[in-house]
Amino acid sequence: MTSLSLYRSSRSEVPLSPLLRLLILTQLAFNVGFFAVLPFLAEHLGSAVGMAGWLVGFVLGLRTFSQQGLFVVGGALADRYGVRPVVLTGCALRIAGFGWLGYADEAWAVIGAVLLIGFAAALFSPAVESEVARQAVVREEAGAGSRTRVLALFTVAGQAGAFVGPLLGALLLSVDFRAVCLAGAGVFVLVLAGNARLLPQHIPGRERIQVRGGIRPLLRNRRFLALCCGYGAYLLAYNQLYLALPAEVERAAGSQAPLAWLFALSSLLVVTAQLPVTRWVGERLSPRRSTAAGLGMIAAGFLVVAAALPAGRTGTAGLLPAAGFVVLLTLGQMLVAPAARAWVPDLAEEGRLGLYTGALSSVSGLIVLIGSAAAGTLLDTGLPAAVPWLVLAAVPAAAIAVLPRGR
User: Cα angle at 394 between 279 and 308, to 5 degrees?
Assistant: First the structure.
């Protein structure tokens, strides 16, 4: 059976297994706890702790590095020791990290807490993501439904958590930042307790493996590395929500106040439209075509802003291209993210899905780190305003040609 026919194999979805429901709800809770704290961290570090702006940026960069950069470590550990111990250890470290951050009032303590918080995610996230992907493939091969639909539901759960978390954090911030951190830790206490009770010691069909050859076979897997490049281009484009978009909103509106509405628009689109879009696409497109279509849509979003900038409109009319960019970027995300994650099991070595799932994030994160520095430089060079957006549009467009072909 071909990859595409597997995706079309069943129009009638059967209910998710208890394990998949647990893992998807775990992802929801992960993001509720994390995003209850993260949006308010920079302001706390600057005002309450008294850090200089460069140090705040450095601390936030450390968090990203300790998380995304070490995903490959968490994935390899999940392959070696199983999902349960890695998830439970990650949750325990996240609880300790949030608790420490709530009481940290010196730079060294903040840095230690942030590193612990990031490393915790580097443990539990690839373990959960790889097992969701594996279970989705098993479910698809049994004719129970498309793997992309399961992974789309996983994405929706994450977005819902990212939407609810800041609301919880904002509510508790009226007390103080410590209350926010302790609430985040409390969410992970519940996650830890739930997984300790419900996550099986041994998941049928998942064999723990001895690590042989390290990551050398992965580095020789050109098709997987090509997928990482395509996925990295998507993540680099998505990162422009926090880099290029604020600059455009500032130009058009004179302030960044409309950003909150644009971010809410993006989250609302994912929560309401991800599953219908995935169902429609899964019946018609292979993972490669879905990924390519998503990258093309993202490139079109950058072109919308580039085409409108020479007119120099401001106010509500000036914000319409930015809104168009957010819509097209989010629709592209709906196509790329589930398809790319569903593609990884077809490219991974037997028994190394955790390693490959983690490596997808780590390699892509490195691409984003380098690309974001270049994008920031491009935005500050004084070139005509449309030029950076045209260059950014070329990145996802070029990534389409890099995507692996065939099975």
Answer: 90
| Residue whose token pair is 């899905």 | 353
Distance between CA atoms of 323 and 319, rounded to whole angstroms?
A: 6
Assessment of whether the complete model's pTM goes beyond 0.90: no
List the chain residues with pLDDT less than 70: 1-13, 53-54, 57, 60-61, 64, 205-214, 256, 260, 406-407
Is 93 in contact with 120 (CB distance < 8 Å)? yes
Which distant-in-sequence residues (6+ apart) come within 8 Å of 54 by Cβ?
none
Asked whether the beta carbons of 102 and 118 are under 8 A apart, the reply is: no
**Rounded to an integer, what distance in angstroms lies between the CA atom of residue 113 and that of residue 181?**
11
CA dihedral 271, 24, 129, 166 (to 10 degrees): 50
Burial class of residue 49, CB neighbours in 10 A (0-12, 13-18, 19+)? middle
- Closest by CA to 75, choosing from 224, 222, 233, 211, is 211
Task: Kindly list the structural domains of the chain, giving each domain's residue range(s) and its CATH number in brackets, ordered by start.
Answer: 1-202 (1.20.1250.20), 216-407 (1.20.1250.20)
What is the sign, positive or negative, of the torsion defined by CA atoms of 372, 373, 374, 377?
A: positive
Using one digit for the tens of pLDDT, what is the confidence trace for 64-113? 677 777 888 888 888 888 899 999 999 999 999 999 999 998 888 988 99
